[in-house]
Amino acid sequence: MRIVMTPRLLRLRRLVIGEVSRFPELAQALFENGPQRSIQSLAIVISKLVQRGLLSTPSPAVAATTLNWLVLAALVNEAMLLGDEAIPTTTAMRAHAAEATRVFLTAYASDTGLDDLR
């Protein structure tokens, strides 16, 4: 989250979004090397947690997408639209991530693995 919320990356993201119709390959590259890569990495970890019986999901990729956007969507959206002044503090990011994780675990933790994950 701290990497995504850096002013430099947010400015790049705003620029790429603004120019997506002229440079779709640039947007594709940013997507593949940013959100898509993160979600794929999360899916691998989630798959391992499913194998260990700690999480329950028929689709680790869907669960990874859910976790990714639970953690990032609100904060990124605010910073994208309101500017760098809307970038939250590290403390606020941690609190947001903790709540997103709580919601995720409520949905995806297996009955037997819930206590181990908390």
Question: What does this protein structure show overall?
Answer:
The protein has helices spanning 7-18, 24-33, 35-51, 60-82, 90-108, 114-117. It is mainly α. The protein is flat and about 50 Å long. The mean pLDDT is 94.
- Report on the biggest sheet: none
Distance between the termini: 20 Å
- How many beta-strand segments? 0
User: How would you describe the oligomerization state of the chains in this entry?
Assistant: single chain
Total helices: the number is: 6
Strand content: under 5%
Short description:
This protein is mainly α and 118 residues long. The chain is 72% helix and 0% strand.
Could you list some keywords that capture this structure?
118 residues, mainly alpha, flat
Question: What's the layout of helices and strands?
Answer:
Layout: H1 7-18, H2 24-33, H3 35-51, H4 60-82, H5 90-108, H6 114-117
